[in-house]
């Protein structure tokens, strides 16, 4: 009798399952799946809301970070401009420089030239001298009403007559398309050592004397036909932002300057 009751219980369970299956199939057919779709949406809607909320938060956080970055950048620019204007105001009115910002620079000629946001309308002319924090940057090569193109001292074509401040040894500084330059001395064995400061020479006809340029990094006294030195440039040529533009100032030509220096340092 116990075995018979177990058989009926199994058959009852099977009949119940079959009834549930047929009933579900009939319900799907009658409602064309609307009930199942509503049931699915009811289950997944909270999950979708949960997924959407973090996405919106991430977008909001990204926008806040963007605005914070812009604020920091504007604050830094404002600080630099204030420092530059304070420096300009301390200069004599007759020789007061023109502040300008670097607005153009190509990756192909990064070390050769930059474009400034001020031109002839601001009083800038070809041959004007460009300086930045640290010293000499370059020379204005061409001008439009609103822009100026600057030939940097790091350009291969740039040549600057320079002197060693400690000893007076002189030579020509040539650009090396990097944060360093090459100094070719007039003397075969100049009185120079690493760490000596380099500035523009009083023999130069394009730059006033005494403008800081850099320091001697290394020496090659065996180089032919003349000794050379690697010069670490003071101005941040690789990351120029704000600069000051000065009118060209003529240096008085020394009467006893060597003829070779006069002919070579017209730069």
* Share of helix, binned: 25-40%
Taken as a percent bin, the fraction of beta residues is 25-35%
CATH superfamily of the largest domain: Rod shape-determining protein MreC, domain 1
- Radius of gyration over alpha carbons? 38 Å
Total beta-strand segments: 12
| Helix and strand composition category | alpha+beta
- Spatial order of the strands forming the largest sheet: 1-2-5-4-3-12
Descriptive notes:
It contains 3 helices and 12 strands. By secondary structure, it is of the alpha+beta class. The strands form 2 sheets. The chain has a 6-stranded antiparallel β-barrel with strand order 1-2-5-4-3-12. A 6-stranded antiparallel barrel has the order 6-7-8-11-10-9. The chain is elongated.
